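step 4 of 6: structure.
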Amino acid sequence: MLEVTGLGCLRGERRLFGGVSFKLAPGGLIWIQGGNGSGKTTLLRTLCGLAQAMAGKVHWRGEPIQMLGEDYRRELTYIGHANGLKEDFSALENLRIAAQLAGQSISREAGVEALLGSGLAGREHLPVKFLSQGQRRRVALARLRLAHPRTLWLLDEPFNALDTRAVADMQHIMENHLARGGMIALTTHQDVDIQAADTQTLRLDA
Amino acid sequence: MMQTLRYVVFRDLLLAMRRRADVATTLFFFVIVASLFPLGVGPDPKLLRVMAPGILWVGALLASMLSLGRLFAEDYADGSLEQLVLAPEPLALVVIGKVVAHWLVSGLPLVLISPVIALQFDLPREAIVTLLLALLLGTPLLSLIGAIGAALTVGVRGGGVLISLLVLPLYVPVLIFGAGAVDASAMGMDASGHLSILGALLLLGMVLAPWATAAALRISLE
């Protein structure tokens, strides 16, 4: 369970947001909404521990995430604005190396399968620099298709650059994850309908 | 834990393999800098022998600096640095992996080619052996110290110049004892004192630099 109390962040001199509180239980989904520059990305980065909060606390299973450190990181997958892909590596190499570093080592076959599922058949061995924006996004998101996924997904604009079919696919994967008792916090500008046991919406600029 | 270390080293070595030109740049820079001096100061063997330790070490220092910009900057730009920081292992471990890979790619080739370069300066054989040992101890230290500077300047515009201002002063002890060892040995004296100090510095760097780099990365990523 992820518990956020009174979270506030500054960007330079400006207060981005303050007093953000919510609880995310297994099977729960939270939409983080707000205009450009309202602090959605900063909030997600704070939730995964990359950025420090000026005020408030983030607790995971009742413990502050700073105290948990690696134990918390072992339970989350963060997919940021940048895809985190190496241009010189193929899609398969990127996926396998990302999974290995996240402590989710996968076999070659499992990697190929996840990429096939992402609609990248025939492009597994192509260096990522030859892929389109949407295809790169698919490679980054393929991590979510691996067996034994992490419990908590923090996704920053996951549907960016994806076509409608890929969005529908992702939606399906997220619903499966939630049905398994996973948790998702995501930001998006697109209207996507994801079925969850518990859906919350957080507006940052409200 | 060791597995993560292996994965990071493997990843960075594979990246280097894909961009062999970058690796070659460092090596050729060292070779060319070291070869320009004999052309510039003239072929007086006595003068060259005196100058050799300093020239070779300054060349190694600058060559190592040249490749520091790549250590974290690209990972930062494409977002994979965030993923490395979020790996469920201590960040210092990831840093050690990156430093090891950096040394294998940019330090070790210098060490291996240095005896050939040293021949240009007519160094005696004992001095060449000492040079090899001193570089073997000193170049990993350059990578370790350089990593701190690279981490501090991640995401800073014009970081390349800043890195040299931050890191070169910290390289001074390595330069003094490294060149000192070769000097001593060229004059027929015992260089083990200098080498011991280099070794001690390397141990100190191995213990402290990864933590400092990890802390600097966390700050830079905020």
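step 5 of 6: annotate
 - The radius of gyration of chain B is 18 Å.
 - The first helix of chain B runs from residue 2 to 18.
step 6 of 6: archive
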